[in-house]
Amino acid sequence: MNKPSFKPAFIISVYLFIMVILFFINRFFEPVENYNLMYWCYGFNALITSIYLFLILYLGELFKHQIGFVFLGFATIKIALFLILKYYKGIEIEVTQFIAFFLPYFASVVYEILVTKHILDKLSFKE
């Protein structure tokens, strides 16, 4: 297995830094009653996306033909787990609380797409 041409710890650290910045910006605009939901959403998205980034950065060369499927699988798992946990925790999401979920989810998906594109650009698909 080849060593990645970029530092996975740096890429994951940049992602976590972006999430912390977004969290504090979002916290400034969210009402206090949404803080628990916001903590949960940011933590959940940060954990799942960090696992995705770790796997894709270390196993991207080995599974280069399946990277797109891994991305789609993690996106599906992320939404499914969120909805299952939301159901079991009894969280009702109103329109005013939607941004507390959507902002970290959207930021995570955009970062996943950028990293996946970067990895695919660097891989050679010649057998």
From TrEMBL:
Key words, A-Z: Membrane, Transmembrane, Transmembrane helix
Organism expressing this protein natively: Psychroflexus salarius
Transmembrane segments: 6-25, 37-60, 66-88, 95-114
Protein name: ATP synthase protein I
